[in-house]
Design brief:
alpha+beta; five-stranded antiparallel beta sheet; globular
């Protein structure tokens, strides 16, 4: 179709129908009324539309369950059908309930650990986003562990990045005459937007460079242990291949708790190793 066939708010509800029915095995109108604040009649209309127009036969009503259950021939239509989609949905609900305790979201049997929040002021983040979208120079004060005193910098931000633990911004730095990563919580004071810059994402070669990280089970483990690890990581042919930007390699390895420059004496401590370290060495932290 030339035009997207569903409104965004409707699509979210259809995805919710598909996710809950597939992974919990039971969907009711109550799921939709609690999550989206709609009436029971609208919830029934959404389920019927999903059944009629999107995925006929995917779910059916079970009078014993008093809800809809997935069929044996269930085929995802508006989701990928992966466990991560359900787990991220539960994670989102947990985060919302952490702020709005009275929200009646169904997140029973799910608990989530989150990294501590980093303090970033609106007076920093707001102009940072504006400068990134307009490719403008930004005057800011920045501190680091090497230089804990405020230092004025002029940067040209292009992308905000969440590494799994904290946020940083990828930006051109006029002082270093190169692209750098700046931790958002280390900016101080207020940021001032200046004029246009010639340096944007298109000039950041390491950012544009795509690389593949290849992870394998530690060969010192037994074949049976390696098989367990391969299954844990969803490896194919004994390898986990992760496509990423060159500048994000180190953060991806940190998420895997993998230090390519340190070899653990006990293979059970790290469990996986970097197979193609030589190919990635130009971008690894020293």
């Amino acid at each position: 179709m030339d035009l997207w066939p569903y409104r965004w708010d409707h699509l979210l509800r259809y995805r919710y129908i598909e996710t809950i029915s597939l992974w919990e095995g039971r969907l009711t109108t109550g799921h939709l009324t609690r999550c989206f604040g709609i009436g029971r009649q609208q919830a029934s209309k959404d389920i019927n539309f999903y059944l009629r127009e999107i995925a006929p036969g995917n779910i059916s009503y079970d009078k014993y369950l008093k809800g809809y259950r997935p069929s044996k021939d269930f085929v995802p239509r508006v989701t990928r059908g992966t466990a991560d989609e359900y787990l991220h949905l539960m994670s989102r609900d947990e985060q919302l309930m952490g702020v709005f305790e009275s929200l009646p979201l169904a997140t029973a049997n799910v608990e989530q650990l989150t990294p501590p929040g980093r303090d970033v002021a609106p007076s920093i983040l707001r102009p940072m986003i504006q400068a990134a979208r307009a490719q403008k120079r930004l005057e800011v004060d920045y501190v680091s562990l090497k230089n804990p005193d405020r230092e004025g910098r002029i940067i040209v931000p292009h992308t905000l990045v969440f590494t799994g633990y904290r946020w940083h911004v990828r930006a051109w730095c006029e002082k270093n005459q190169g692209f750098r990563d700046f931790v958002l919580s280390r900016f101080r004071g207020e940021a001032e937007i200046l004029d246009d810059s010639q340096y944007g994402e298109d000039q950041d070669r390491d950012w544009l460079q795509r690389v593949t990280i290849s992870i394998v089970p530690d060969p010192r483990l037994s074949s049976e242990q390696q098989e367990v690890i391969a299954h844990d990581y969803g490896m194919s042919e004994g390898k986990l291949r992760l496509d990423t930007r060159a500048t994000l390699i180190n953060y991806q390895l940190q998420l895997l708790q993998l230090d390519p420059l340190t070899r653990q004496d006990n293979p059970l401590a790290q469990q996986v190793v970097l197979e193609n370290q030589g190919a990635l060495s130009p971008w690894l932290f020293n």
